[in-house]
Structures
1.
Amino acid sequence: MGRLIAISNRTAADPKARAGGLAVAVWESLKETGGSWFGWSGNLVDDVPRGANVFRDEGVEFVLTDLTHEEHENYYLNYANRVIWPVFHYRLDLAHFNGEAFKTYSDVNQRIAGIVANRLQRDDTVWVHDYHFLLMGDALRHAGWEGPTGFFLHIPFPPPEMFRAIPEHHWIARAMCAYDVIGFQSSHDRANFVRYLVDQFDGEELGEDLIRVFGSTTRVAAYPIGIDPDGFRDAAQTAKADRAAERISRFLGDRHLVIGVDRMDYSKGLPQRFEAVGQLFDAHPEMDGKVSVTQIAPPSRSKVEEYQELRTQLDQLAGRINGDHGDLDWIPLRYLARSYSREELAGLFRIARVGLVTPLRDGMNLVAKEFIMAQPEEDPGVLVLSEFAGAAEQLRDALIVNPHDKFKVADAIYQALTMPLEERQARWRKLKAVVEEQDIGWWRNRFLKDLTPAD
């Protein structure tokens, strides 16, 4: 393989963004191959930029373009986050279909494709990431690029019946099949996309994850993304992690900590989780004063109306639960709408008895894997995991729950809080083995192997 070329809406141009997630997977390959990373600079301007900001860091070339205010409004806020995001997360009721926004979404994909195509070399391999660039493969082909081009979707893919509600679904599907390899987080997501191609366009499954459609063959497979397990385990042992654990321990006393960490997003099931916490204390009054639940939920996409409404709903639920169950020296549910560093979160995970990861729908949810790696072997906590998170396909030894059922989620939290040490250790060892074996490097290598098979 020659150079790796990465394309994503946001990049790791800021060195602080290279500690986790996508950056960990892509960064090493970019450095090894002298590759390039294309994306948005984060800046907004009045007029469409004629060029891009180009610089190098640690041997990696960054090529960043500004967005106009109109592009940001229509491409990012409207089409990406008010059409694709809700529909792909099974929330058709929150979608705001907008033909003008789709045109801008398409135009941005084409504009960035033009910037990329002008800098590509013959032996490059292009790896495109996430829902902002569903049309990028097709745009690159029209710009003259014929080399290997793969796409990985970090969020779920909906059932065909739901995907077809998007007025431009035919256009999107055809454009996606311009990629040589399309990767999904779970086998369920892959099955949804393949069923759509078979039902809608008479796609033919050829075996070995290959499907023939639109006159060409595309590999469509599940590549569940992992984390850097050693890196997160080390993060949990840092001084910063120790300080975070010490700060919350002063509040906890000898109480058990139940923790959730999610962006404030309607896909995360936070209202349903809060209701389950209330049900826990309703059903088990003996837990009063013995358990403290902390939910960290930094604001996300605060300009979108649905997120402002979610914030109001969470404020009301937390107030009711604490009013009903709290006491002078005990707050049942602490709800913190702010961000914490990776090390601080690792320190909080380390001392938590229960990790709540209960999204209504998630592509993977790496918090589940980070919680596992932060746990101490001698006294590990228990992961309560939604069956609708992509991670549930791998982490079968967690307590798997339906996040819509507050009674079963409350029961699972209680089971986790009262689980004997021997069972906690046995479950944790199995989960840890999966996270370590199927880590971020395993994910990257599987995808790139399929994208650039040996001659």
Note: The first helix runs from residue 22 to 33.
2.
Amino acid sequence: MTSRTVLGLFIPLALVAATSWAATTPSPSIPAVQRLEPQTSKLVPQGAAVQVLASGFRWSEGPVWIAKGDYLLFSDVPANRIYRWTSAGGAALFLHPSGGTASSGFREAGSNGLKPGGPGAILLADQGNRAIAVLDLRTKAKRLLSTRYNGRKFNSPNDLAVARDGSVWFTDPPYGLEGLDSSPLKEQSVNGVYRRSPDGSVRLVEDRLSFPNGIAFSPDGRTLYVSNSDPAQAVILAFDVAANGTVSRRRVFADMGALAASGLPGLPDGMAVDEHGNLWATGPGGVHILAPDGRRLGLISTGAAVSNCTFGGADGRTLFMTSSDKLAAIRTRVRGAPHRSPRFAR
């Protein structure tokens, strides 16, 4: 999640009701796809338009499609809530609080990124509890999996991804803390990227980014992508990943600095990978479609900052986008890369 206050993207909105809320009939918008190469039409059909599925949130984030149930879950981070969206019923409150309950010292205590967590469960980046957690979808019982590195609390875990060996990788910027890097609650000296192995041990993977945010793997698990939500260093990095979980060949995969400087809404944030290995990465202007070799293929715009995206729907070919106060979607011709199940003691 990008910091709206720091980056000037936050506009006060009406608070969502604390009990439940449902969207009105989805409203189609004008076509909003820039096609930079001919092959983009093989990914997004001609005439495809962004639909607003629900609105009225404070800052929507972390969408995850639940295939066994045909519904979408997503976070409203400042409101400390998770919402459930269905095509028949719209959006309704699923969990409150979604993150921690402490308010002192926190600017955003809710859940952020969400990912499949194995049968009947999801993984959460829990900013308020400063933890990676697993949530039982039936009982809504939450268990904190990791809260510390080297004996010190994490800052506020933001997004996560599961590697081919079942390890959970996550980013840890300070967005959940009042004062960000100057917060007296901040215990880590860096804003890191971490790997939680199946045995529960945690290792620092990357320590040189100012605001690490979105994280994703290529379909074969051999490439790791990490976005940095900093207008002074608006980039997506790529790393080679070895079978033992070590990384090498750190490189800039996409430099969005010029786009950020142009004033387009948003910064590098959440990402999704399709079945062919294309990266659908949020950034200035919307969702950038990037080929595995880094070529820009297209841009999907919602007219506002897009924080994250995921593939889902009955046939897996809908791209759901959390965009400022809205949940939006567009039809594509591809499915997301298959999700991996995390490995940890149940």
Note: The helical segments are 4-7, 257-261.
3.
Amino acid sequence: MSKGLSRRLGPELTGVATLIVFFVLVEILIRIGAINVYVVPLPSTVLASFGRVIAEEAVLQRFLLTMWEALIAGVLATLVGVSLGVLLYRSRILRLAIETWIAAFAAAPLVLAYPLFLVIFGRSALTIAMMGFASGLAPVILKTLEGLLGVRPTLLNVGRSFNLTPAQQFWKVQFPAAVPTIFVGLRLGLIVALINVVGVEFLINFGGLGQLINELAERYDLPGTYAAICFVILISVCFFLVLERVEKWLRPAS
């Protein structure tokens, strides 16, 4: 294996090896009785249940529905959150007035407000997507604001030395410099949105992987429940890979 290929594949191979070692260790601890098998099933039985869950529980349709709901929530949180973050950056008095309230909103357990969303939007996928959007909005706003406020004065002075207009200064200097912090907010927002999407599906027993987890848990099918949770993790991985590609596209020099 060449050095370049080894450098590219090294982190991925290390991650896979770490997961394998972790699951083998858990398997051993369960078999010797250190971990209760009625709380955490054997990883081997979880792996064996994937075929059954896929064949019997319409996992593909549920997976796509949950991913679609999380995607709508994430896109809305991105568009609205970045726009509001820029607005707060531009308006100092507005920032001083509501930044603390947005931070408090980020800490609020919005999942408990699902009855209100049910009244407004009905028992539908739209309710779930809007709850995900509401929960993921605050981290995007705050991190966008943090990124723009954290742009180094040296970069701004360089832009002024080239006589850039305010719009050019923003798009060519400030926004590229803030992209890493903004994407931290996008990742946090997507995590919170996905958690709330699956949580509301679980609570109202409507569609998607959350409903499947609820049904399998009620049957006390622990291997199937953990297998369904793995599909939720797969959605998160897909979103993170897409975000990584978009960030690299926005930062071609990095």
Note: The longest helix spans residues 166-204.
4.
Amino acid sequence: MLFEKPEENILRIYEDNKIIEEGQMVLNRILRDNLGIGKVHLLLVDLDGSSEVRALGINAKVQLVEQMKAKLNSLLDSNYYLIDSGTRDEMFIVLPLTEEDEVVNFAEYVRSTIEKHQFQIKLDKNKKLNVHLTVSIGITAAPTFGTNAADLMFTAKEALNEAKKMKNRTVTINESIISSRNYKSYLSEGQITMLENLAEHTGRTTDSLILESIDRLFNKHKALWYWGVENWEYYKELKENTNETQKSI
């Protein structure tokens, strides 16, 4: 079993976030190409209970994520797109110009297929572990709940959070889910004004900006990611050393 050193964890998280940024660019391109024609739906698929595999070491988690990615790819139609998150087990599926009932049926198909699937984790040369996990899925749609990748991904996350309350569920975002959060109630009038100005300037919704701030504040992965960016020279040296080590192996 392979466990990460802190500096390896920071490096991996940095690379994961770069992959997510690249995924946002892909999603924005799909939105630009399709929103003038019809809706674009986005699914956020997240494994339930994967922390048990992560506890076995990063190598076990990477195996799990790669198998999940391969399985999801095998389920996609030719006009669907998979956007992964590197070594994280959250994956987005983009469904351009698809009717809502087809989207829900496809999400249920994904959920039931993963529920029946057996993941196989190789722990060492002689030991393998068979794992059965479920997924929770959040569904959102553009332009109703966002016209750019950042807004759409955060509304998908809101739907996923609702699905995660019971796990192994599919939830479609709606106005009642968004209004039930009532994030603005924690802000002063001045903060709300600043937020609205920022939203207008960036083309984002105020809700997704608040959600992004909360996500960055409480998600330890994001906290480490920003620590890594602030210490850019340290990261650069770390990456160079890692590359040299890999060349010598």
Note: The first strand starts at residue 40 and ends at 48.
